[in-house]
């Protein structure tokens, strides 16, 4: 079992992308440059000229393809290929490198990688650099460890040569190389220069630690290296980037999705203080001023008439009515085991029916969308919390009228994202590039920062789609579920995008039905079908994607089946999951820790939900109390199995944070369009998210595991809403089937 | 011209008096630790201290701040601030971190006024500070920890003060 960690994960793209013998692991170094390791991937042509350039630069340790830089000052810089947006990837990937290097944790400095898919691609995404789907730690687990192990091997070799001793007799601990026999020791920094002259071994030939030798992986006390700067205000997000002479741009976009500009009168706006330019964009009009405040005031002075001929002009209530009608008709089948329709019409079948609906939701990261661009003769430089660098570069290039190789994209901390910064068309980055281009065309040479106001963010689209689930089940005479028919009505997030061919197969957008298509319950007859209505409302992945609504339907419905059968909802789940050991384990653990089955006062109740998403397994037990006309969530107990727990404290933070995010959707957030198609909410006063007062006590229990690690950014979200809805039913006898959950 | 006293030094700014303090700090003075999150006092990301009180800089106008002592996250100092920052770092409160300067400013103002707040007092004081990453449990724990550390420090120095 121990060696399990070192094998590729079956069924993941790692298998196909494992570095082959053609891979290069090379060291580039100039005098004093220290050790730079570069792990090359297949297809990543080793740019020899870059290596040479780095050598010529003398003290420039930045060579391409590098994950690790050791400098003589004893700092180990770990180059992080993923976006740090709060999920802790700086800590996670640095832990892997430090573990295999046997570095001291306090000598590690993570930094964002440049945009370059040949070196920094997500191994699960092919030739694409990006962060999402809770893949960061999983895809980089072996890659980062091998990079660290190679560094260690080279440092050991260097020490053994310097000291004239056997390499096997050199030990490494907390960044110090030692030879016990002679009592000699040296820091990594002291050996860096000499190690930089070696030819590195093939990364596939270096030994990785067996899990029982891990010193950092699994350690709870490892502090996050980015905490201090995020506590005292030094951390820089895109909205904080300041360049000399920089201007600020705000964009007026149409109030209805799909509308276009008909007429523009910018005279009044142009005359306002500080205004430097007005730029027409494909989706709106930018006002560019010397400061945010000036730009915001001037934006209000724009006189615009919109052309609504292709715009959405119906409200979300009417759309939902259409969804209800659609749900009466068969959709495209995505799963069909046995014969669900026949089982539902068996004479002795007890039929249970329910409909669940969820609204559109905005991501609302605390840092609204923002980016800085500087367009010069040589190209465009952009600073952003970029979540999909490879696509962002292509989109920026297109909007700026340049070639992709003329784009330099600097990734900076993102103040949250939850999927928003991974918009498929890089909407906000196209805007900033278009504005920079417009300024240049108007003879203005200045860098520009685009800021979306919170109102822009809430009204700007790219929502989690509204969805309706119509589910019908049948129990046999003994109360066992024998049929499950599940119809999903949900706008596709991938239709019409360049990814349609990847995500939409045979008319099924997999992200609309994930969590139902892989329904884990042992029900003999299962049928699922899908309607994908279209609308001009832009929709997108939102933390946990399809699972954010499918788990609500599935886990509410299985609860309804249990109650219909007179069974304990926990016992029924355990019975139907008897062949699913990892789901079973988190379910049992959460239930045990929550005190499931212990008597509760009247008006209080427990609800449970369990779900697999992004290859992680999560169960939540919610404890609620009915209040006068409402309810409160007092406690959430969560169990998670995410394979080997690399950073237990970050797992706890992500699951607690995911629980809060899930609670926002369960209790508060709702994005609606009025009957003329205009978004009704605009800021946090009417698009509500969870506040501290409503945050229950959250307990997170981690299942010990030696399976390869899987993500935790998203899997904490899906089970929250159904656990709460099920608890409300237990406490009050009222079944809530619509998010956000409201009693009465 | 507007005269502001920020982090102990007087600044003359050539901006209209109806400019929100938030944008004077960020755009004119380059003090970007104070964040924009909503612009309408709904999130607390822009929290600063004016004469020791936590206020929302997005809806405070520079013309109203004559003679006021303004402190931003960059200028925050003293034993309470140190205790709060230490507790925040020890608990690894921050995720994306974007709300955290505002949370820290709010927590320091609370503890300066009420050295040992109970859960209700923490809820009342902190409920206006949103954290979309959901770090609320750690915020609460860190405030208790900071209060505890300040209490211990006060107890340690008490006899010395008496003597
Ligand atoms: S920006 Fe001031 S409270 Fe949100
Ligand atoms: S830490 Fe991200 S919003 Fe609070």
TrEMBL record, chain A:
<dbReference type="InterPro" id="IPR008274">
    <property type="entry name" value="AldOxase/xan_DH_MoCoBD1"/>
</dbReference>
<protein>
    <submittedName>
        <fullName>Isoquinoline 1-oxidoreductase beta subunit</fullName>
        <ecNumber>1.3.99.16</ecNumber>
    </submittedName>
</protein>
<dbReference type="InterPro" id="IPR012368">
    <property type="entry name" value="OxRdtase_Mopterin-bd_su_IorB"/>
</dbReference>
<dbReference type="InterPro" id="IPR037165">
    <property type="entry name" value="AldOxase/xan_DH_Mopterin-bd_sf"/>
</dbReference>
<dbReference type="InterPro" id="IPR000674">
    <property type="entry name" value="Ald_Oxase/Xan_DH_a/b"/>
</dbReference>
<dbReference type="GO" id="GO:0047121">
    <property type="term" value="F:isoquinoline 1-oxidoreductase activity"/>
</dbReference>
<dbReference type="Pfam" id="PF20256">
    <property type="entry name" value="MoCoBD_2"/>
</dbReference>
<dbReference type="InterPro" id="IPR006311">
    <property type="entry name" value="TAT_signal"/>
</dbReference>
<keyword id="KW-0560">Oxidoreductase</keyword>
<dbReference type="Pfam" id="PF02738">
    <property type="entry name" value="MoCoBD_1"/>
</dbReference>
<feature type="domain" description="Aldehyde oxidase/xanthine dehydrogenase a/b hammerhead">
    <location>
        <begin position="232"/>
        <end position="310"/>
    </location>
</feature>
<dbReference type="InterPro" id="IPR046867">
    <property type="entry name" value="AldOxase/xan_DH_MoCoBD2"/>
</dbReference>
<dbReference type="InterPro" id="IPR052516">
    <property type="entry name" value="N-heterocyclic_Hydroxylase"/>
</dbReference>
TrEMBL record, chain B:
<dbReference type="GO" id="GO:0046872">
    <property type="term" value="F:metal ion binding"/>
</dbReference>
<dbReference type="InterPro" id="IPR012675">
    <property type="entry name" value="Beta-grasp_dom_sf"/>
</dbReference>
<keyword id="KW-0408">Iron</keyword>
<dbReference type="InterPro" id="IPR036884">
    <property type="entry name" value="2Fe-2S-bd_dom_sf"/>
</dbReference>
<dbReference type="GO" id="GO:0047121">
    <property type="term" value="F:isoquinoline 1-oxidoreductase activity"/>
</dbReference>
<dbReference type="InterPro" id="IPR051452">
    <property type="entry name" value="Diverse_Oxidoreductases"/>
</dbReference>
<protein>
    <submittedName>
        <fullName>Isoquinoline 1-oxidoreductase alpha subunit</fullName>
        <ecNumber>1.3.99.16</ecNumber>
    </submittedName>
</protein>
<dbReference type="InterPro" id="IPR002888">
    <property type="entry name" value="2Fe-2S-bd"/>
</dbReference>
<dbReference type="Pfam" id="PF01799">
    <property type="entry name" value="Fer2_2"/>
</dbReference>
<dbReference type="GO" id="GO:0051537">
    <property type="term" value="F:2 iron, 2 sulfur cluster binding"/>
</dbReference>
<dbReference type="Pfam" id="PF00111">
    <property type="entry name" value="Fer2"/>
</dbReference>
<dbReference type="InterPro" id="IPR001041">
    <property type="entry name" value="2Fe-2S_ferredoxin-type"/>
</dbReference>
<keyword id="KW-0001">2Fe-2S</keyword>
<keyword id="KW-0479">Metal-binding</keyword>
<keyword id="KW-0560">Oxidoreductase</keyword>
<keyword id="KW-0411">Iron-sulfur</keyword>
<feature type="domain" description="2Fe-2S ferredoxin-type">
    <location>
        <begin position="1"/>
        <end position="76"/>
    </location>
</feature>
<dbReference type="InterPro" id="IPR036010">
    <property type="entry name" value="2Fe-2S_ferredoxin-like_sf"/>
</dbReference>
């Amino acid at each position: 079992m121990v060696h399990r960690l070192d094998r590729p994960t079956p069924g993941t793209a790692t298998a196909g992308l494992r570095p082959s013998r053609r891979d290069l692991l090379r060291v580039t170094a100039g005098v004093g440059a220290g050790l730079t390791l570069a792990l090359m991937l297949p297809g990543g042509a080793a740019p020899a000229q870059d290596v040479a350039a780095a050598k010529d630069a003398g003290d420039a340790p930045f060579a391409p393809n590098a994950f690790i830089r050791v400098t003589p000052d004893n700092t180990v810089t770990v180059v992080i290929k993923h976006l740090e947006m709060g999920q802790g990837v700086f800590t996670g990937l640095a832990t892997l490198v430090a573990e295999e290097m046997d570095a001291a944790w306090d000598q590690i400095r993570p930094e964002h990688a440049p945009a370059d898919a040949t070196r920094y691609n997500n191994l699960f995404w092919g030739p694409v650099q990006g962060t999402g789907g809770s893949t960061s730690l999983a895809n980089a687990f072996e890659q980062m460890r091998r990079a660290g192990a190679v560094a260690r091997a080279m440092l050991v070799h260097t020490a053994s040569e310097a000291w004239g001793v056997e390499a096997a007799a050199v030990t490494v601990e907390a960044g110090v190389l030692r030879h016990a026999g002679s009592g000699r020791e040296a820091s990594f920094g002291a050996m860096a220069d000499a190690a930089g002259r070696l030819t590195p071994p093939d990364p596939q030939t270096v030994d990785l630690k067996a899990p029982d030798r891990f010193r950092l992986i699994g350690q709870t006390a490892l502090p996050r290296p980015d905490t201090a700067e995020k506590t005292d205000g030094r951390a820089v997000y895109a909205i904080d980037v300041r360049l000399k002479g920089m201007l600020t741009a705000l964009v007026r976009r149409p109030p209805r999705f799909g509308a276009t500009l008909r007429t523009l009168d910018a005279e009044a706006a142009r005359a306002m203080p500080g205004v430097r330019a007005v730029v027409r964009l494909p989706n709106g009009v930018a006002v560019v001023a010397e400061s945010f405040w000036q730009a915001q005031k001037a934006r209000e002075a724009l006189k615009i008439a919109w052309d609504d001929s292709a715009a959405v002009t119906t409200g979300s209530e009417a759309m939902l009515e259409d969804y209800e009608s659609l749900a009466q008709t068969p959709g495209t089948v995505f799963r069909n085991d046995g014969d669900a329709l026949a089982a539902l019409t068996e004479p002795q079948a007890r039929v249970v029916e329910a409909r669940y609906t969820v609204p559109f939701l905005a991501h609302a990261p605390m840092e609204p969308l923002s980016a800085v661009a500087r367009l010069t003769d040589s190209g465009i430089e952009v600073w952003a919390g970029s979540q999909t660098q490879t696509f962002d570069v292509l989109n920026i290039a297109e909007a700026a009228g340049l070639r992709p190789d003329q784009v330099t994209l600097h990734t900076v901390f993102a103040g949250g994202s939850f999927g928003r910064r991974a918009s498929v068309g890089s909407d906000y980055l196209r805007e900033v590039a278009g504005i920079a281009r417009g300024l240049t065309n108007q003879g203005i040479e200045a860098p520009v920062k685009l800021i979306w106001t919170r109102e822009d963010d809430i009204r700007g689209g790219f929502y989690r789609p509204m969805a309706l689930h119509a589910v019908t089940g049948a129990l046999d005479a003994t109360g066992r579920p024998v049929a499950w028919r599940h119809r999903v009505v949900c706008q596709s997030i991938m239709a019409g995008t360049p990814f349609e061919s990847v995500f939409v197969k045979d008319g099924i957008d997999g992200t609309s039905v994930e969590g139902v298509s892989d329904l884990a319950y042992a029900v003999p007859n299962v049928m699922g079908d899908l309607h994908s209505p279209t609308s001009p409302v832009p929709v997108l992945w939102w933390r946990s994607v399809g699972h954010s609504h499918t788990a609500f339907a599935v886990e509410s419905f299985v609860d309804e089946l249990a109650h219909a059968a007179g069974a304990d909802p926990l016992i029924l789940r355990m019975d139907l999951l008897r062949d699913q050991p990892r789901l079973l384990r988190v379910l049992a653990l959460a239930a045990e820790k929550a005190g499931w089955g212990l008597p509760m006062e009247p008006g209080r109740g427990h609800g449970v939900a369990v779900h697999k998403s992004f290859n992680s397994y999560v169960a939540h037990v919610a404890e609620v109390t009915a209040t006068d006309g409402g309810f409160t969530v007092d406690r959430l107990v969560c169990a998670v199995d995410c394979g080997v727990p690399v950073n237990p404290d970050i797992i706890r933070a992500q699951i607690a944070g995911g629980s809060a995010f899930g609670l926002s959707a369960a209790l508060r957030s709702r994005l609606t369009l009025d009957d003329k198609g205009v978004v009704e909410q605009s800021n946090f006063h009417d698009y509500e998210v969870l506040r501290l007062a409503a945050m229950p006590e959250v307990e997170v229990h981690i299942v010990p595991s030696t399976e390869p690690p899987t993500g935790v950014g998203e899997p904490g979200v899906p089970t929250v809403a159904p656990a709460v809805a099920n608890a409300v039913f237990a406490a009050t006898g009222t079944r809530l089937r619509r998010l956000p959950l409201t009693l009465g | 011209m507007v005269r502001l006293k920020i982090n102990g030094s007087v600044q003359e700014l050539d901006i209209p008096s109806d400019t929100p303090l938030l944008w004077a700090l960020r755009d004119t003075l380059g003090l970007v630790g104070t964040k924009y999150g909503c612009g309408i006092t709904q999130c607390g990301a822009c929290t600063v201290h004016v004469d020791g009180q936590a206020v929302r800089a997005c809806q405070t106008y520079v013309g109203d701040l004559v003679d006021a002592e303004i402190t931003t996250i960059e200028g925050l100092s003293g034993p309470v601030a140190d205790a709060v920052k230490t507790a925040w770092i020890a608990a690894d409160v921050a995720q994306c971190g974007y709300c955290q300067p505002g949370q820290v400013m709010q927590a320091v103002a609370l503890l300066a006024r009420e050295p040992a707040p109970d859960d209700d007092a923490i809820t009342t004081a902190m409920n206006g500070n949103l954290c979309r990453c959901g770090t609320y449990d750690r915020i609460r724990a860190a405030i208790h920890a900071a209060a505890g550390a300040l209490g211990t420090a006060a107890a340690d120095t008490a006899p010395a003060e008496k003597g």
